[in-house]
Task: inverse folding
């Protein structure tokens, strides 16, 4: 095992003496776990062929890709292992199943929380400029990520949000455009910075000159919860289904509190042309709703796997009002296997009927972070130009 550690391509954590995961020269990955008394050990990961399920929520069919599962084999020393096929550049998450019980990789110090679940993760960059490359830290100027509390008179509570400021912000007197970036159901103000790799994506895009330096604001969009677990005062337990459908209306009502705080505490270039809103899933619906509620505030609107289909007359009237002075960019993105595509089709059919300008990007896959990181990387390069 010492020899293996010495020759490993990438050792993520020396705590057990094992190298796991080990990224091999052909970009396959080997997982290892020392568990001599275990009867069965498997690895479950989004780097394996996915399992697909369908379910309904709020009357809408959603397709979700679950991590694939592979059985590991044990050697004479009690070490279980499994090697994947060669992988493309990406951020991958995984856990072990030991006798049916989930556990993190004790050899890997890199962990992240997705809603209420913790997983181990790793990144692969097969070549410079691929998806995995943008999710890694490189020798470039780095921005700052801070956690801020603000007062929301509308909701009657102090609330927490995450703010990314670009490299050089602290030493500059310049004013910066703002992207308000909203999370999905079960998420919180940590979701985009942790799972979405916002700081790494923005640092790399800005350093390459592909994105304008900007402030990215990531508020907590669940109105009855103040903050991420460990910081809230109500011991809120996040789940995928407890955001409730009225969260969209509540964030519409309270969003001016967020903007007021940001504009009074940061050097913000104000005005519609300097303000964008985007989000994933529930955050996409909220972004759609906010653009209709405040048509004078956002010149760039991004909806990632989430829109409000104009099924009500009030929504159609709000869209008509928004496009009297069309946003500079009205961008819809969704996976081909995502059940949300049905609502995207309804919105786009109305926009086409009216001749309203928009852009649409269809990717592979379903309702997954792997898509949402890509959508952010693309959207960030199109705004504030």
Result:
């Amino acid at each position: 095992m010492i020899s293996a550690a010495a020759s490993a391509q990438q050792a993520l954590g020396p705590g057990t003496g094992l190298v796991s995961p080990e990224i091999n020269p052909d970009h396959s990955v080997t997982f290892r776990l020392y568990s001599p008394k275990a009867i069965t050990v498997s690895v479950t990961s989004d780097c394996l062929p996915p399992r697909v399920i369908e379910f309904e929520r709020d009357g809408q069919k959603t397709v979700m890709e679950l991590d694939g599962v592979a059985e590991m084999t044990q050697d004479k020393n009690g070490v279980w292992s499994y090697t994947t096929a060669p992988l493309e550049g990406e951020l991958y998450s995984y856990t072990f199943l030991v006798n049916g019980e989930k556990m993190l990789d004790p050899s890997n110090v890199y962990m992240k929380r997705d809603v209420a679940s913790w997983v181990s993760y790793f990144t692969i960059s097969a070549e410079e400029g691929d998806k995995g490359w943008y999710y890694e830290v490189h020798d470039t100027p780095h921005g700052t990520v801070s956690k801020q509390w603000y007062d929301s008179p509308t909701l009657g509570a102090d609330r927490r949000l995450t703010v990314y400021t670009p490299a050089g912000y602290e030493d500059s007197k310049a004013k910066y455009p703002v992207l308000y970036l909203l999370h999905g159901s079960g998420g919180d103000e940590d979701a985009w910075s942790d799972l979405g790799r916002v700081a790494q994506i923005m640092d790399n895009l800005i350093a390459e000159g592909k994105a304008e330096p900007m402030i990215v604001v990531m508020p907590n969009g669940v109105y009855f919860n103040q903050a991420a677990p460990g910081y809230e005062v109500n011991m809120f337990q996040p789940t995928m289904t407890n955001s409730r459908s009225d969260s969209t209306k509540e964030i519409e009502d309270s969003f001016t509190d967020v903007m007021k705080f940001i504009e009074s505490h940061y050097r913000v270039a104000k005005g519609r042309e300097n303000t964008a809103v985007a989000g994933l899933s529930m955050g996409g619906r909220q972004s759609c709703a906010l653009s209709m509620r405040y048509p004078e505030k956002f010149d760039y609107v991004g909806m990632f796997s989430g829109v409000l289909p104009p099924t009500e007359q009030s929504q159609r009237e709000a869209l008509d009002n928004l496009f009297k002075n069309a946003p500079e960019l009205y961008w819809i993105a969704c996976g081909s296997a995502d059940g949300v595509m049905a609502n995207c089709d309804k919105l786009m059919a109305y926009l086409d009927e009216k001749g309203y300008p928009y852009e649409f990007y269809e990717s592979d896959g379903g309702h997954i972070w792997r898509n949402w990181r890509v959508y952010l990387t693309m959207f960030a390069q199109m705004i504030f130009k």
User: Anything to note?
Assistant: The chain is about 25% helix and 30% strand. Residues 1-9 have pLDDT under 50 and may be disordered. The first helix runs from residue 2 to 7.
